[in-house]
Amino acid sequence: MKKRRSSLIWVMAGLLVLVLLLPGAARCQLPPPAPPPPLPDPEAMRQAMGNFFRLPVPKVKSLEEEFAFPDLNLPVALFIAQQAHVSVDLLLPWRRAGRSWLQIAAQLKLPPTLFFLPLPEGSLGPPYGRAYGYYWKHKKDKKVQIVLSDREIADLVHLRIASTYFGLPPSHLIQLRAQGKPFCQIYGQEYRKRHPNKGGGPSAGGKGRPGPKGDDHGKGKGGGRGPKGGK
To answer: What predicted TM-score, i.e. pTM, was given to this entire model?
Structure first.
């Protein structure tokens, strides 16, 4: 009887150990969780803009809706507002009234040379050849007004932002643009290289690094200000 009771105790102890170990063993056999889907180009660009201008990414998205700008133009508005130390909201009625970026910059006492990175003179193809050719020729002659289209200003601003934020040589970005690669795709590729584990799920629209007030709509206290162009 005692021997049978002892055997029963050992069987029960073994079953108890097996029950305790089974969940862990089952967990060990589960496949690893799938990696998050890659962050889409537009979202990667918003993340970069939020970090560069020290704005929460949801604020960047709300400004896109408020301004109803193409993706290339909102960063131009933020850049101009940052350099002029004004709220980006000030620019909205001017744009709705049909003013160009060059006219808005002039209204805020910003020279056209502010949009240019100081590159060595040479031969550049589109989309920078005409703008830089005119800039190199007339940058020292203050009597000659440097004329830039909205598209040229957008390309120049994005060249400054991308080269500063990602630490890329401007010549590399100029080459990519000459090959026809849009800036939104460039932002996406470069951001994913630096944040390979950041997926495009519901949490992708997190906050960037807000400035002191966290909601200054691009006022000029952000830490993403790039090098100033030659004046």
So the answer is: 0.71
